[in-house]
């Protein structure tokens, strides 16, 4: 995995600083106009993901331009919906963990036992959410469509081949992204938006790297006739 390239390809190029600042403004706009700026950024992120997947060097992509606002907005709807679906499923897991925690605390009359049970159950929920969201969102980004059944089938095949590598990648990404966002908050909180942009674009780069490993392991390309046939057979 090329971690250094993942965190540097977006900003360390001609026009990279401008793209980072404009994308940051898109995210920051959600403080005044909810959701829209986030969808616009997700649309741009999907386009970059597709550009990277087509480039052998994993670096060529278009700059962020507000002239493409409507195109980004349209492209970002389905990734946004997929994020909502993942969040809803994760929410059910969190509710279940809370319920078990309350039951344990009430049954044993020991609040600390309930808290411990909640934390123990919460860990696999967070882990599985992060693990499955990567291929699910990637499928939507590469197809430009929301096909929930096909996306979950792809995620199952993807993780079946690469779950170990995905786990390591997510752990490293978590460490680096935490450091970057901490620095962003330290800069009077203003730097958190550029840091978030770099982190999210790095995740897209890492996703494409993992996708190429998946193909190298014999996985079917997203949207191919073979993938469609395999999906229907499941």
What does this structure look like?
The chain is mainly alpha-helical and 234 residues long. It has one domain. It has eight helices and no strands. The model has no long low-confidence stretch (mean pLDDT 85).
Summarize the model shown.
The protein is mostly helical and 234 residues long. The protein is 79% helix and 0% strand.
Envelope shape: globular
Q: What does the largest sheet look like? A: none
Distance between the termini: 30 Å
Counting DSSP H or I runs of 4 or more residues, the number of helices is 8
Number of domains: 1
Q: Decide which structural class fits the backbone.
A: mainly alpha
Mean pLDDT, as a whole number?
85
| Rg for CA atoms | 19 Å
Total beta strand runs: 0
Helix/strand order: HHHHHHHH
What share of the residues lie within helices? over 70%
Poorly predicted tracts of residues: none
- Residue share in β-strands: under 5%
Features of this protein?
mainly alpha, 8 helices
Task: Spell out the blueprint of helices and strands.
Blueprint: H1 3-8, H2 16-28, H3 36-54, H4 69-108, H5 111-143, H6 148-186, H7 192-216, H8 225-233
Helix pairs in contact: 2-3, 2-7, 3-4, 3-5, 3-7, 4-5, 5-6, 6-7
């Amino acid at each position: 995995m090329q971690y250094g390239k993942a965190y540097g390809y977006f900003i360390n190029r001609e026009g990279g600083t401008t793209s980072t600042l404009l994308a940051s403004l898109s995210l920051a706009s959600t403080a005044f106009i909810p959701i829209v700026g986030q969808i616009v950024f997700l649309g741009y992120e999907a386009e970059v993901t597709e550009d990277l997947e087509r480039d052998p060097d994993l670096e060529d992509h278009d700059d962020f331009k507000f002239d493409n606002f409507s195109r980004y907005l349209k492209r970002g709807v389905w990734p946004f919906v997929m994020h909502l679906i993942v969040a809803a499923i994760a929410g059910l897991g969190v509710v279940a963990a809370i319920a078990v925690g309350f039951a344990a605390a009430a049954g044993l009359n020991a609040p600390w036992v309930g808290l411990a049970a909640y934390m123990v159950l919460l860990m696999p929920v967070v882990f599985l959410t992060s693990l499955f969201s990567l291929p699910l969102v990637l499928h939507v980004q590469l197809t430009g469509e929301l096909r929930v059944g096909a996306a979950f089938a792809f995620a199952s095949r993807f993780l079946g081949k690469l779950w170990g590598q995905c786990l390591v990648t997510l752990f490293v990404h978590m460490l680096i992204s935490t450091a970057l966002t901490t620095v962003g908050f330290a800069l009077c909180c203003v730097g958190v938006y550029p840091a978030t942009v770099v982190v999210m674009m790095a995740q897209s780069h890492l996703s494409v790297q993992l996708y190429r490993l998946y193909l190298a392991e014999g996985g079917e390309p997203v949207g191919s006739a073979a993938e469609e046939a395999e999906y229907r057979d499941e």
